[in-house]
Structure prediction request, 537 residues.
Amino acid sequence: MNIHNDINNDIKFLAKSEIRLKILNEIYKKPNNVRGIVKKTKITYSSVSSNIGKLEKNNHITKIDNKYHINPMSEVYLKTLMDFKTSMDIVSDYETFWNKHNLNQLSINSVKRITDLKDSQLIETTPVDIYKTHNAIKNQIMSSKNVKAIFPYLHPEYPGLIEMVLKNEGSAELIVPQSIFRELILRIDEKIRKDSMRNHKLQIYSYKEDLNLYLTLCDGNMSLGLFKTDGSFDQNRILISDNPDAYRWAKDLFQHVKCEVKK
Amino acid sequence: MTSKDVKNELTEEFSGIKYILTSGMRSRLLLAIYENPKKLDELRGELHKPSATILHGLKELENINLVRKVQKSYELTSNGFLLTANMIKLIENWYSINKDKSFWNNHDLSGIPDELLKSIYLLKDAEYVNSTTSDLSNAFNTYIKLLSTAEKLKIILPIYSENHFRHLIELLKGKKLRNLELIISEEIYHSIRNNDIFSQEILESDKVQITCVEKSLKIFLTCSDEFVSLSLFFKDGHYDDAQILIAKDKNAQKWALNLAKKYNGGEKDEISTI
Prediction:
């Protein structure tokens, strides 16, 4: 992919000066004059004044009635640039979660919307609490009515947990690899399983190939786990979140994998 | 806090994006190996730079764990992949806006929620159509022509326009259009209600579903299976019927359906995936 030259220069013009970005952000929040921006940002008058001139010259802001206003296009530029910054922050904040992990099962759209995960919490096991990640997910499932999950492996407690959700008149939609499909089904109480399937309260999809992703959606909570690039599941880290954006992100990813299964 | 402290704080806050986006070599290297790992000679041929420059850039990217060398090829690490995919999104977003500068820069964008503005790259294949002094109705006529191809329509309609209503009624009377979902403000709803013909032919039609929203709307969005179109208001509050964006690809359709969903509060799975 080639970066078009003028786009490249536009991006560079804003990205290379943190002062310009700060000023533009202030004007975006509220149109202001030079003195007002100095007061808000604590940047020196001469620096604000000279950068305002550059921003105006490059058609990012317009002076109307003694106040500078951001132009609509630059508002989108600023938002997308800040969005890219957030994606970089997410990569570095959860560095241990992503690093040397297999991301093949994430859809490209999930990757491009990674900023939806910005308020997530990284749960890591510790030597004194080696089941911390498992227990966090277990607690989410136990307190939920509606569960959607991608289980790439069968934990002995899963059938019981799903059974409990169904007993409490909840519903479960699961995607599992073919290799554990039968085992999972057989371990759920037969009567509960058959009744739930008949009432569409239990749906299980079998995926022909291995799944490289662990995902749960429990009422408003999501959790995400990954496999390492060596092929083993990383039981020591999960990302969890109750943020609606993260939940929607997980829901869309679940939908994407479900479509892959149906294909 | 002194001005030096402010400068240091800002430098730290934005150091990441500055490091990646202001170096032509670093960003070009990331883009070059995004699809496939490449060897040094392939990179040299593609970037037209000497080995020393390329190796220096690769070393910098290896040091911050975005690139790794496997045998003789350079590839993105998982962190590098996440970052580069989002850098491509940034570039495509800027490209989409830049391509139709006069459309985006002259209008009020407040009717488009932030998350949709941030994924404007999905409109990168949209076509900008505007009216000219020799054809004042070019945008409108293009729109009406497209409408006639639709079997299902979802429209966020922010204006009371007899012209538009007449065309919609004609389509509702025909066999092709099977379903019309209108998202309108209460004000527009009452105006339609006050017109006997429009009220009967549109509001009472079996083919029409109406969603009323309290606030006035600032976007004119149409989604069908075949196309999406978008027109906007000027910053002074007047509707601009002379400029329209039209797209016929799946990405634009997803973008538009998600935008429509923001207004009708729908939660259907099939339209939730951008």
DSSP finds twelve helices and eleven strands in chain B.
